[in-house]
Amino acid sequence: MTELTFVGLGLVEPLRRALKDEGYIQPTPIQVQAIPSILLGRDLMGVAQTGTGKTAAFALPIMQRLAEAKRHAAGRTARVLILAPTRELTAQIGDSFKTYGKYMNQTQAVVFGGVGQNHQVHAMHRGVDVLIATPGRLLDLINQGYIRLDGIEIFVLDEADRMLDMGFIHDIRKIISKLPSKRQSLFFSATMPREIISLSHTILTNPVKVSVTPESPTVELIDQKVMFVDRYDKGKLLSKILKDKATKKTLVFTRTKHVANKVALNLTKEHIPAQAIHGNKSQSARTQALKAFKTGRTPVLVATDIAARGIDVDNITHVINYEMPDEPDSYVHRIGRTARAGASGVAISFCEAQERDCLRDIERHIRQQIRVVVDHPYHSHEAMNATGRGARRPPRGMSKPQQHGGRQRKYPQKKTAHRRPRRQTYR
Ligand code: AMP
Predict the structure, then answer these.
(1) What is the largest CA-CA distance in the chain?
(2) Whose C-alpha lies nearest to ligand 1, atom 21?
(3) Potential cystine with 80: which of 130, 150, 243, 258 (Cβ 3.0-4.6 Å)?
(4) Of 187, 230, 177, 228, whose CA–CA distance to 207 is shortest?
């Protein structure tokens, strides 16, 4: 491929300058594939996950097209509508537009539920270039007459599969019915089940199709360690690690909201600034916690897997698995929060006796043994030597080897990205 620069993709200077400020040197594969077609006004179907650089893949050409045909949106309307499934994602897309568009002078509004609507209504009053919204609140504001979609020139549906999972299909159909039929549409989804394909047919006209294989986080770049520790010592071990100066920005994972709260509270008592983020928190509490973590004011964020989905924070130095994840895949996603964009990072897993099974499954999944650190004050021999729940108490009539055979089948020996030569990732 020869076109591996942003100039080669046809992007104008103000956008390239913003990318340079961000330290982007090369476009990612999805950007290489998508940007030229979007600039030409084509509809696009993109199979890509978060972490591939997909936001810039649509944001950059959209801003350029807006600038090429400059005009003011009428009051209460927008020129571009981007639909995304969660409040966090809409906020992140909004931030990306601000970052990439800092030399472009375009306006935007972000609209999502869970907070008062006045501010959003006000932001839309005079019309904006780009409106980024979750479906429910957008429909609410449309029904109240605060937003109209008749001026939309470009429509983006992001994370379509997650939208469907979250039950937004009816809202999406209603929104689509309000869009002008003459428009450019871009459709992104990480997976392409049949329903998603049929939804895409109702939105796109003769689309260009682009697809990037999911980049698994570069586990090779992450210094992975496991510490065996009894459950009641985990809090003390965590404080000890966090008091070390090397742990600058640390994401701590728990399995439940309850434990997340407890861990954050205990750290605060120990004068280690920490906040918890999970589904039970109000939107403003989540936004505030995330902001404090991003800016480094709160160096420790305690999160459940669900709450951490879609959080986009750079420079996380440490990921700590306070509780092991149930699914080996979650482990890869958790630790992938550090060592992004080629940086190195540390992932430490606290493993108690009951979690030996999880650890074994994870090691099988990543086809790698995680280094054991015994040199810490809370090391538990019992946890280290435990052979896992299943092995200690095999169900009646089933021998140990059979039982392990069963677990192995749960995670078939598929070819994973970890075996492939290392590739650049963008998260
Ligand atoms: P996304 O898939 O849009 O969530 O992007 C994932 C991360 O990759 C974000 O933190 C972006 O800032 C970053 N990113 C996007 N494009 C590039 C690029 N060309 N070079 C380096 N980082 C990038």
Answers:
(1) 75
(2) 24
(3) 130
(4) 187
CA distance linking residue 40 with residue 340, whole number of Å:
32
Q: Looking at the structure, do residues 172 and 111 belong to the same domain, yes or no?
A: yes
For the ranges 113-117, 119-123, 170-174, 397-401, which has the lowest average pLDDT?
A: 397-401
DSSP 369: P
232 and 377 both lie in a single domain: yes
Whether residue 148 is found in the same domain as residue 199: yes
The residue among 374, 359, 341, 368 whose CA lies nearest residue 407 is 359
The answer to whether 354 and 286 have CB atoms below 8 angstroms apart is no
| pLDDT tens per residue, range 22-36 | 888 889 889 999 999
| Residue 373 structural domain | 222-393
Q: Under a CB-based contact definition with an 8 Å cutoff, are residues 144 and 124 in contact?
A: no
| pLDDT-derived band at 389, boundaries 50, 70, 90 | low
The answer to whether the CB of 52 is under 6 A from ligand 1 is yes
Within-domain flag for 407 = no
Between the alpha carbon of residue 102 and those of residues 8, 60, 99, 163, 312, the distances in Å are 21, 11, 6, 29, 19
Query: Distance (Å, rounded) from C-alpha 206 to C-alpha 209?
Result: 9
Instruction: Say if residue 137 is in the same domain as residue 197.
Output: yes
Instruction: Report the number of distinct structural domains present in the chain.
Output: 2
Instruction: Examine the domain organization and report whether 159 and 238 are in the same domain.
Output: no
Indicate if 198 and 243 belong to the same structural domain: no
Q: What is the arithmetic mean of pLDDT over 318-331? A: 89
For residue 62 the two structure tokens come to: 């959209």
CB of 100 shorter than 6 A to ligand 1 = no
111: domain CATH number?
3.40.50.300
Other Cβ atoms less than 10 A from the Cβ of 148: the count is 17
Per-residue pLDDT reduced to its tens digit, 125-154: 999 999 999 999 999 999 999 999 999 999
Give domain status of residue 1, yes or no: no
User: Is 3 a domain residue?
Assistant: no
Which of 93, 294, 316, 426 best tests ligand 1's pocket when mutated (most atoms within 8 Å of CB)? Answer: 426
The answer to whether 131 and 82 are in contact (CB under 8 A) is yes
* Residue 369 pLDDT > 80: yes
| Residue 245 counted as domain residue | yes
Could you tell me if 230 and 174 lie in one domain? no
Does 113 share its domain with 204? yes
46 lines ligand 1 (CB under 6 A): no
Whole-model pTM: value is 0.60
